[in-house]
Design a protein that fits this description.
Layout lengths: L1 H14 L9 H11 L4 H13 L4 H44 L3 H35 L6 H18 L4 H17 L6
Helix pairs in contact: 1-4, 3-4, 6-7
């Protein structure tokens, strides 16, 4: 039964998300946490792993959650579920887009979807930011080496993204900084 639930849940996520993998985050977070398949902390770790491994983000995160929830078959069901709607829609749109791309309703729908997708991505960013930095706020916001290191990595990564540094370099450098801080004994999670 969990296999069907994984497939249907990720099919729904794939079907009702516009704007790419990051726009899926609020729906993934809601569904995965409501089903009890993972905790918020594990989800943040899955996000980091999904972002830093090859392949599309949505496929990576669904595979990890499916694997965590129900093993290899769960991973297959979740991944198939998240991919199926896009596959079906792309087949249909490829046949119809050229004929309808200049229609006022299509232009209007696309105009309306763009800011909504941006808001969904921003919502996800804020949710992950709060989860990552909430341990510091729960401790009466003490300035600690771990807080400074986290904020430093966050700032360097943000500057790297703004300056158009290649995302792989940002990920690798952030991981290297984390490893160095761990070796120095500054990180005890």
């Amino acid at each position: 039964m969990i296999y069907l639930t994984l497939f249907i849940t990720f099919f729904k996520i794939g079907a009702f998300t516009f704007g790419g993998g990051y726009a899926m985050l609020p729906l993934i977070q809601n569904e995965v946490l409501n089903h009890g398949w993972t905790t918020m902390e594990e989800l943040v770790n899955f996000l980091a792993i999904s972002e830093s491994t090859p392949g599309p983000f949505a496929i990576n995160i669904s595979t990890y959650i499916g694997m965590r929830s129900a093993g290899v078959l769960g991973a297959i069901c979740a991944t198939s579920g998240v991919v199926a709607p896009s596959f079906i829609v792309i087949l249909i749109l490829a046949r119809c887009y050229k004929a309808f791309s200049n229609h006022w309703a299509v232009k209007g729908a696309l105009f309306g979807l763009r800011p909504a997708a941006c808001a969904l991505v921003l919502s996800s960013v804020l949710s992950v930011f709060i989860t990552v930095f909430s341990p510091f706020w729960q401790e009466s916001f003490k300035i600690s080496p771990l807080l400074l290191a986290s904020l430093g990595i966050f700032a360097l990564s943000t500057v790297g993204c703004i300056k158009k540094v290649h995302p792989i370099l940002v990920i690798v450098l952030s991981a290297v900084i984390g490893i160095i801080l761990g070796m120095a004994g500054l990180i005890t999670i």
